[in-house]
From TrEMBL:
<dbReference type="InterPro" id="IPR037523">
    <property type="entry name" value="VOC_core"/>
</dbReference>
<dbReference type="InterPro" id="IPR029068">
    <property type="entry name" value="Glyas_Bleomycin-R_OHBP_Dase"/>
</dbReference>
<feature type="domain" description="VOC">
    <location>
        <begin position="4"/>
        <end position="123"/>
    </location>
</feature>
<protein>
    <submittedName>
        <fullName>VOC family protein</fullName>
    </submittedName>
</protein>
């Protein structure tokens, strides 16, 4: 059996602006309005979409980690720096403006205005190497 994550909903107090900002940083397409539903989708790849939904309610802070090739990491980090967004090497804070290389690749973390935490990494540390 093959299971693939198709989409997930990201609650936001500024859905369109948050979707646009993430899409710009990652260098992927987005839309202010989904063809179906009340979402502002960010199209991460051919099979996965983050659907930002507008809400005035309180919501938990989510963490999303995006594994990217080395060249894309450099481009994304360049856009983060150009936008003046603070980034760090540690998930809980600390290592401000530094890149984490603890797991054989590179990774950085940053938070968006709603508080959600984004991460880009070049090597997954979620699973042991094959």
């Amino acid at each position: 059996m093959t299971i693939e994550l198709d989409h997930t909903i990201v609650p936001s107090h500024t859905a369109v602006a948050s979707a646009e900002r993430l899409a710009h940083l990652l260098g992927v397409p987005w839309s202010p309005q989904a063809p179906l539903g009340p979402f502002s989708p960010v199209y991460l790849n051919d099979g996965l979409t983050l659907d930002f939904i507008q809400t005035d309610e309180a919501f938990p802070i989510y963490h999303f980690a995006f594994r990217v090739p080395e060249a894309d990491f450099d481009a994304i980090l360049g856009r983060i720096r150009a936008a003046g967004i603070p980034f760090r090497s540690d998930v809980r804070g600390g290592g401000e403006g530094r890149i984490n290389t603890d797991y054989g690749g590179r990774m950085v973390y940053w938070n968006e205005p709603d508080g959600h935490q984004w991460e880009i990494l070049t090597v997954s540390y979620a699973r042991a190497p094959a």
